[in-house]
Amino acid sequence: MTFVSYSHRDLEWCQDLLVMAAPLMKYGSIQFFSDSDIAAGSAWRTTIQKNLDKTVVAVLLVSRHFLKSPFIMDTELPYILDACKKRELTVLWVLVSECLYKKTPLREIQAALPTSTPLEAMSKANRSTALKTLCEKIDSAWSQSEPPKLNLSLHGKKVQQKMENLKILARPATRRTEIFIRSDNSGDWYHQGPVLPGHDTRTCHFGSLKTTPGTGFHMMAMTTDSSVPDQRGKPMKPMPTYRFRADGLRVIRA
Hints:
By secondary structure, this protein is an alpha/beta fold. The protein is 27% helix and 26% strand. The strands form three sheets. It has a five-stranded mixed β-sheet, with no helix packed on it. Strands 2-1-3-4 form a four-stranded parallel β-sheet, with helices on both faces. The protein has a two-stranded antiparallel sheet with strand order 6-9. It is elongated, with a radius of gyration of 22 Å. The model has no long low-confidence stretch (mean pLDDT 91).
């Protein structure tokens, strides 16, 4: 998810960005969310929070109106900056209009575009060039976030035969991510199913009721362009060709 944070007074800039980003959504499968996507009657705070939880790239359209918004400055921005530190969320901010951003925490973050000339002071052609550059940076950040990262805090932990909604990924998936498990005494990988974009959990099965306590199970995550059919409890043979793969996580059957 790419989350666009902006003041309603700057709606035109959000709209211009989304127009430029249209090919990323159509051909790059990059999802964008702004509060203009909230349906009438929805619990807007809850909707925004849920989408922030799935955000991989946050785009901030910074202006004097942005800095005056209590919701942005007291809720959205603190969450985004905290996620930047804790789960590697990428923050791309641009200067829409002259404002006192140097008096805010944004002074610690490099802007995605030069701040010498804000967007509103540019010619139409230069604005288009600037928005194109911003979209290219969004695309690059999105691509860099595709490689799955396993939740290494699970390493060495004890698990039951069935673990519901196990937090297997360290950060939400940006692309469908397939999860596989194999035991210490086997070279066969068993498909557990996918973690869908925006999520980080998966119900996993570690052996059977007859599995000896203390048996180790290795976990692996991959993104792939190949179809991964239901194996109906059989080992995956052959394994899919992967785009990116993460392994190195081992848990122990209780």
